[in-house]
């Protein structure tokens, strides 16, 4: 199907190359940008925005955040001297403009195999330093880099650009606490304050930033300048320009910022993040002040693109393939795992008033929005604060609630200790719902939800389920919220649901999906977990066709263990007489399900060989989920080949 500038083949979309405007095309690095005259900057900003919309609408990506930082990123590269000065983008989802200004002008394959990644990447450029897309780390990086530079007598600046959302994360404040005590370190913290994470940023800090942003006396000063000076010809214009240039000073006069100053940081702000002159003036000033300085910049997420500016939900925080003019999706999203969770949790909340939803700044993406709309006082957004979310959930459980913390699998990594010590040790009935578990693909190394099984398998008492379809997800959730004395965890992948996968029989150790319901000697058992249940079934089908007519009478049984951890004793018994066990898991092999199964089997003196097919211990480069699954040998063909190889079929 041909659709405007996209060719859609099945679910794959092919892209034509997008051409940058003349000014943008002339920039191969920060030196070219520095050579531009001030009056050329608005045109460059316009060309960048157009390029972003044209390119990102074809591939999907973080459009809204990047549209908001066009002038800011230009100013950073004109005032500082990257890579000698270090620019760090917290989370990194807003670094597209930085890429465009540092020689990466081909976004044709943004976030696709072989193309530019969606985050800073050391492999791509010497201008990229921090690749980690888990939020709230930039100031710690800046603290560390500047600490060592100071020790070496290197006075180059380190600039950490951090969003108001990322600033709700505890790590940011731990870093500020460290930085603020030393005045010899040339660190500039730029707070990119657009008032939003996905949705509006929550909490006391957000209110404080709001107050600074909307101080009426400051607005009045600017409005007065506009009205009285701009109507007085050239001299008035010059005076207004001067006021603009001075605005940071004006701002300090009308809204002195006690909080940051008391912490020991010099504060400059607020600065209009879409006014290149004001931005450069403020950043120059921050640079010359020396020591840690915080520059508070006000930006508009989605700036300059009407569909994003008007998007109530999240200002086009992250989009799929969209029509560039309307912003409407071109590839309709199919009913997915998140939607099932969203629906089921409301039903459960209707029945059980103790259920409380918890989110770390991702209420809509994790599916808690419908519950919030029905029960506004029963869904808590804690900000980007996963560690706090987990411990607070333990507290809620102590006080009588059953918290359900819905979070992307990769972001639970940082709260391991809290799950262990605050939830499990205290036997708290908290349910963790991990969306985006397993290979996610296009967001690159840090977003794959591949560590959770290994990490969580170490936690005493924790029960972990990996549903394979809609019905098993609903059933797992129904059961999880009844467990009141231990953590329960449910994981599922990104994207669309498979068709229902029915069980031949449900047993105490899981669902038998194909093969023999009763134990058979010398059978091959495929333990097909979660999103790989379908793969296991297809592989079994192909294998059974291969052995048909063969006198060996090989039975291939597919079992979905559903509640995978702790490994069930009776499952191990079932495997005792098998010839081979193949474990399919959308997670890390090291310490994963197969590893836990082997441990349990050894305890029970069952020595059936277990072949593990999961994700080897490595960071996965960005590519589509399908491509990665194929490359890892987790698709049907590879499973069939593995079994044939082992059995010499
Ligand atoms: C530890 C962690 N939790 C959650 C996320 C998901 N996430 C990505 S961007 C974002 C909102 C960031 O808001 P802000 O820092 O203000 O940046 P903006 O998008 O507004 O520019 C969230 C919650 C993440 N990247 N890292
Ligand atoms: C930067 C970040 O962490 C999120 O924006 C994430 O990229 C969203 O991922 P999904 O598109 O899978 O919701
Ligand atoms: Mg923000």
TrEMBL record:
GO terms for cellular component: cytosol. Binds 1 Mg(2+) ion per subunit. Keywords: Isoprene biosynthesis, Magnesium, Metal-binding, Thiamine biosynthesis, Thiamine pyrophosphate, Transferase. Pfam families: DXP_synthase_N, Transket_pyr, Transketolase_C. SUPFAM superfamilies: Thiamin diphosphate-binding fold (THDP-binding), TK C-terminal domain-like. Signal peptide: none annotated. Residues 335-499 form the Transketolase-like pyrimidine-binding domain. Its EC number is 2.2.1.7. The keyword Iron does not apply. Its cofactor is Mg(2+); thiamine diphosphate. CDD domains: TPP_DXS, TPP_PYR_DXS_TK_like. One of its GO terms (molecular function) is thiamine pyrophosphate binding. Pathway: Metabolic intermediate biosynthesis; 1-deoxy-D-xylulose 5-phosphate biosynthesis; 1-deoxy-D-xylulose 5-phosphate from D-glyceraldehyde 3-phosphate and pyruvate: step 1/1. It comes from the Bacteria. GO terms for biological process: isopentenyl diphosphate biosynthetic process, methylerythritol 4-phosphate pathway; terpenoid biosynthetic process; thiamine biosynthetic process. Mg(2+) binds at residues 164, 194. SMART domains: Transket_pyr. It catalyses: D-glyceraldehyde 3-phosphate + pyruvate + H(+) = 1-deoxy-D-xylulose 5-phosphate + CO2. Thiamine diphosphate binds at residues 93, 133-135, 165-166, 194, 305, 386. Catalyzes the acyloin condensation reaction between C atoms 2 and 3 of pyruvate and glyceraldehyde 3-phosphate to yield 1-deoxy-D-xylulose-5-phosphate (DXP). Homodimer. Belongs to the transketolase family. DXPS subfamily. This is 1-deoxy-D-xylulose-5-phosphate synthase. It comes from Gleimia coleocanis DSM 15436. The gene is dxs.
């Amino acid at each position: 199907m041909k659709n405007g500038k996209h060719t859609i083949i099945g679910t794959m979309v092919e892209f034509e190359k997008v051409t940058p405007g003349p000014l943008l095309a002339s920039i191969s690095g920060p030196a070219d940008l520095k050579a531009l005259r001030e009056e050329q900057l608005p045109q460059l900003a316009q060309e960048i925005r157009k390029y972003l919309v044209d390119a990102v609408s074809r591939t999907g990506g973080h459009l809204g955040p990047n549209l908001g930082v066009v002038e800011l990123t230009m100013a950073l590269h004109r005032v500082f001297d990257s890579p000698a000065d270090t620019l760090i983008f917290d989370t990194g989802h807003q670094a597209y403009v930085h890429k465009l200004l540092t020689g990466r002008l081909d976004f044709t394959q943004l976030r696709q195999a072989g193309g530019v990644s969606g985050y800073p990447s050391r492999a791509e450029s010497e201008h990229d330093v921090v690749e980690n897309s888990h939020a709230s780390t930039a100031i710690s990086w800046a603290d560390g880099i500047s600490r060592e530079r100071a020790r070496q007598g290197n006075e180059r600046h380190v600039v950490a650009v951090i969003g108001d959302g990322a600033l709700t994360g505890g790590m940011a404040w731990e870093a500020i606490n460290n930085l603020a005590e030393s005045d010899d370190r040339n660190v500039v913290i730029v707070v990119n304050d657009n008032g939003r994470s996905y949705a509006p940023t929550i909490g006391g800090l957000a209110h404080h930033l709001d107050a600074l942003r909307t101080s009426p006396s400051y607005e009045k000063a600017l409005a007065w300048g506009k009205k009285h000076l701009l109507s007085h010809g050239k001299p008035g214009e010059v005076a207004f320009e001067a006021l603009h240039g001075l605005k940071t000073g004006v701002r300090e006069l009308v809204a002195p910022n006690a909080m940051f100053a008391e912490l020991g940081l010099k504060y400059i702000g607020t600065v209009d993040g879409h006014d290149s002159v004001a931005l450069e003036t403020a950043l120059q000033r921050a640079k010359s002040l020396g020591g840690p300085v915080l520059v508070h910049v006000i930006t508009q997420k989605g700036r300059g693109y009407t569909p994003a500016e008007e998007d109530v939900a999240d200002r086009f925080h992250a989009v799929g393939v969209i029509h560039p003019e309307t912003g409407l999706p071109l590839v309709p999203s199919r009913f997915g795992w998140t939607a099932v969770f969203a629906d089921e949790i409301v039903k459960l909340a209707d029945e059980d008033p103790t259920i409380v939803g918890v989110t770390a700044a991702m209420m809509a993406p994790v599916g808690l929005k419908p519950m919030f709309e029905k029960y506004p006082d029963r869904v808590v957004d804690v900000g980007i604060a996963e560690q706090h979310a987990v411990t607070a959930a333990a507290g809620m459980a102590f006080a009588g609630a059953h918290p359900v913390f819905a979070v992307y699998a990769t972001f639970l990594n940082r709260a391991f200790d809290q799950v262990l010590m605050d939830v499990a040790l205290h036997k708290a009935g908290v349910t963790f719902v991990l969306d985006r578990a397993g290979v996610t693909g296009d967001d690159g190394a840090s977003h794959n939800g591949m560590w959770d099984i290994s990490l969580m398998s170490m936690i005493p008492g924790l029960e972990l389920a990996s549903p394979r379809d809609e019905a098993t997800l609903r059933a797992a959730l129904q059961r999880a919220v009844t467990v009141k004395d231990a953590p329960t965890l449910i994981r599922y992948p990104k994207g669309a649901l498979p068709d229902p996968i029915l069980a031949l029989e449900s047993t105490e150790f899981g669902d038998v999906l194909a093969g023999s319901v009763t134990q058979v000697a010398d059978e091959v058992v495929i333990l097909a977990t979660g999103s790989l249940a379908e793969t296991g079934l297809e592989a079994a089908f192909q294998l059974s066709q291969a052995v048909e007519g063969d006198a060996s009478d090989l039975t291939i049984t597919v079992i979905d263990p559903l509640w995978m951890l702790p490994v069930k004793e009776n499952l191990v018994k079932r495997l005792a007489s098998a010839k081979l066990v193949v474990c399919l898991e959308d997670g890390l092999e090291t310490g994963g399900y197969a590893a836990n199964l082997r441990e349990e089997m050894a305890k029970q003196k069952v020595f059936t060989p277990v072949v593990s097919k999961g994700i080897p211990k490595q960071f996965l480069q960005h590519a589509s989920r399908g491509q990665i699954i194929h490359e890892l040998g987790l698709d049907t063909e590879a499973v069939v080949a593995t079994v044939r190889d082992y059995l010499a079929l």
